[in-house]
From TrEMBL:
Pfam families: MIase. InterPro entries: Dimeric_a/b-barrel, MLI_dom, Muconolactone_d_Isoase. It comes from Sphingomonas colocasiae. It catalyses: (S)-muconolactone = (4,5-dihydro-5-oxofuran-2-yl)-acetate. One of its GO terms (molecular function) is muconolactone delta-isomerase activity. This is Muconolactone Delta-isomerase. Pathway: Aromatic compound metabolism; beta-ketoadipate pathway; 5-oxo-4,5-dihydro-2-furylacetate from catechol: step 3/3. The keyword Isomerase applies.
Length: 96
């Protein structure tokens, strides 16, 4: 199943910079691993914001929930999820 996910990252101003840098490095490694696996299909930065828009390809809602909760920056994210299904006019056979 495909999901459109928006993640807004909100780092508290008083957070320990070294701890946050470590989380960001872990997040990057995890994001790249999931992209290589084909699970995190698209990852885009929203210009002008600490926000991304992403497309995930996972088995079901529960799998997406578990994946998002496991992200290192999850405690500092506001996340919104939109489930997607194939558009009848799409020319992409893998849109499902
Ligand atoms: O920077 C972000 O958008 C947050 C998060 C998502 C992927 C990643 O590497 O960090």
């Amino acid at each position: 199943m495909l999901f459109h996910v928006t993640m807004d990252v909100r780092i508290p101003h008083d957070a320990d910079p070294a701890y946050i840098e470590r989380l960001k490095a872990e997040e990057k490694a995890r994001a790249q691993e999931l992209q290589q696996a084909g699970t995190w299909r698209h990852l885009w930065r929203v210009a002008g914001a600490y926000r991304n828009v992403s497309i995930f390809d996972v088995a079901d809602n529960a799998a997406l929930h578990d994946l998002l909760m496991s992200l290192p920056l999850f405690p500092f994210m506001e996340i919104s999820v939109t489930p997607l299904c194939r558009h009848p006019s799409s020319i992409h056979s893998d849109d499902r």
